[in-house]
Amino acid sequence: MLYTMRDVSVQYRIGERRVDVLRDFSFAVEDGEFITITGPSGRGKTTVLNILAGFLPPTSGTVLWEDNDLYAQSDDQTARYRNSQIGMVHQFFNLIPELNAVQNVMAPGLIGGANRHEARRRAEAMLDRVGVLGRAEHLPSEMSGGEQQRVAIARALMNSPRVVLADEPTGNLDRVTAAEIVALMSRLHAEDGTTMILVTHDPTVAAAGTRMIQMD
Hints:
Layout: E1 3-14, E2 17-29, E3 34-38, H1 45-52, E4 60-65, E5 68-69, H2 75-85, E6 86-90, H3 101-111, H4 116-129, H5 145-157, E7 163-167, H6 175-192, E8 195-199, H7 203-206, E9 211-214
Parallel strand pairs: 3-8, 3-9, 6-7, 7-8
Antiparallel strand pairs: 1-2, 1-4, 4-5
């Protein structure tokens, strides 16, 4: 198992009121799966991704990464885990507006210790792979939503992660572009065997995975 979540609960306090975001949630992810997580808003889908990314310690329960407690690591170990083991794709792209496409994709490689020449070579290869190499020198503001999301996927793949965590990656796109992004992610999963965990409200997108989790 790549991930194992056991009896995970997340609670917040708002004054005297307790809000349960997750309650005794358990699931496991095998290496190489393409899992889609779907369900109405407010059911904890994004919370699950944030827990798996190492951003949100649960109130109770256990989160294992390859049988190791993800939240027993030091801050440095967690930072290395995020940089080397996971790639993240967001609904609103989260590209750095002052950097062009190739610079955005290079960023995780540079943080991981690659030299600029090697980082640029790999970033250009990733942009080519997702079909936007021609936009390498363009700023995010000079690209369409679909192009920005392709750049974001290239950035997520920059360090050859074991897992891609995608939070509503088609939620800000028109239906045709959304279908193209889902097809791209399915192709990358098939070619690389990268584990993908994708949150979506869209039943068409949810059906693209090899396993679907419905959260109620």
